[in-house]
Amino acid sequence: MFNKETKTALQAKEAALWLAFAPVAFQATRALRDMGILTAISNSRSQGITIEDIMEQTKMDRYAVRVLLEAGLGMELVIVNDKKYTLTKTGYFILHDELTRINMDFTQDICYKGMYHLRESLETGKPAGLRELGPWDTIYPGLSLLPPAVGKSWFDFDHYYSDLATPAALDIVFENKPKKLLDIGGNTGKWALACTAKDAEVEVTIFDLPGQAGIAQQKMKDAGVENRVHFHIANILDESIPFPKGFDAIWMSQFLDCFSEAEIESILSRCREALNDNGTIYILEPFWNRQQFKSAAFCLQQTSLYFTAMANGNSQMYHTDDFFQCVEKAGLVIAEENNQMGLNYTLLKCKKA
User: Fold this and answer.
1) Where in the numbering of this chain does the BVU-1015-like N-terminal dimerisation-like domain appear (predicted)?
2) Are strands 247-253 and 275-285 parallel, antiparallel or unpaired?
3) Could you tell me the pTM of the whole model?
């Protein structure tokens, strides 16, 4: 997928010029979407709509509508015939596609300002862009403190992909009917709730930071399963705090990509000690080299830079070559690899070596 040149010289120069203006094009696209211009054009369907009608519907002046429409022409979001504008297929997806909306909102609300500090992050190994959101060393303690709209963009992005894989993953995890399951990075408790609904006898322990655990505790009470869901509240990077032990299954969904390779090895080594001899560690991750579509790999490769500048400064969406080395160094073996989970996820079943 990434092993040969695919463009002519002219196409390559065009792509380079697009990248040179990418931040401008991104903000113009958001304005076209959020200020109602694409909606007005979409509602006109194949007949098209004039700039005057767009002005009337959006209550914007001619200058504002005109510069955005002309930018939209260059970005191939709209086309114009007889002074009437219609949406292109790309414009349609910008307006109507949920995945595109979630990615765009995440980029705007979480990443955009912080990406100005990407070079500093790369040079220091610290998330220098995080100062644009709050005064934390990593983003994770601040998730429950973000303004509601900003927090929504983060959680929508975090949940959208993994939620699609949940039904199939549940079936696999509960094939052997685990009695005790450790949910590491349990976040708001969605997986724990799904487990308690799947099996009336399973007991789940959520391992997470105080902010996220507080949200999850309330959700467990609301669902009436607080007697079966327990909490281990700690920073997983603090190696002086032992993991709880005696688990038949350990679950980590889109969690280990939040850590460096050395940290992943440390976490998995301690997971190994927390696991019963015949237990299984289940790891759900989107590996960029396991994607069917180039656009999916692109999204994951760019998401890596969110980790660099905003989240923690030292993690990424991994290639399997790098990730599997961490598994091996932790004294584990991959018993099974399933690359058909949800939209673009891989489920690893790991055992003690």
Assistant:
1) 16-85
2) parallel
3) 0.91
- Separation CA 324–CA 95 (nearest Å): 38
Average confidence (pLDDT) over 209-226:
86
With beta carbons less than 8 A apart as the criterion, state whether 108 and 153 touch: yes
CA angle in degrees (0–180, nearest 5) for 223-226-230: 135
- How far, CA to CA in Å, does 304 sit from each of 208, 252, 300, 334? 22, 18, 6, 24
Structure-block tokens of residue 283:
């790891």
The string of DSSP letters for 183-213 reads EET-TTSHHHHHHHHH-SS-EEEEEE-HHHH
pLDDT digits (tens, 9 = 90+) for 66-75: 999 999 999 9
Instruction: Count the Cβ atoms, other than its own, within 10 Å of residue 119.
Output: 11
Residues in the chain: 353
d(CA 224, CA 221) in angstroms, rounded, equals 5
Q: Which helix (H) or strand (E) holds 39?
A: helix 37-43
User: What are the residue ranges spanned by the domains of the chain?
Assistant: 9-96, 100-352
CATH topology of domain 9-96: Arc Repressor Mutant, subunit A (1.10.10)
Pairing of strands 78-81, 247-253: unpaired
H or E segment to which residue 87 belongs:
strand 84-87
Return d(Cα 257, Cα 307) in angstroms, integer: 9
Q: Let me know: does 186 contact 207? Beta carbons within 8 Å.
A: yes
Q: Rounded to a whole number, what is the distance in angstroms from the first to the last CA of the chain?
A: 33
pLDDT in tens, 239-252: 988 899 999 999 99
The 3-state DSSP class for residue 123 equals helix
Question: Whole-angstrom Cα distance, residue 135 to residue 30?
Answer: 27
Cα separation, 303 vs 313, in Å, equals: 12
**Closest listed residue to residue 307, CA positions, set 149, 115, 134:** 115
Predicted local distance difference test score (pLDDT) of residue 294: 94
As a CATH number, domain 100-352 is 3.40.50.150
Helices (H) and strands (E) in the chain, counts: 14, 9
Q: For the chain, state the CA radius of gyration.
A: 23
Nearest residue to 55 (alpha-carbon basis) of 71, 73, 45, 67: 67
Q: Which residues contact 286 (CB under 8 A, 6 or more apart)?
A: 161, 254, 257, 300, 317, 344, 345, 346
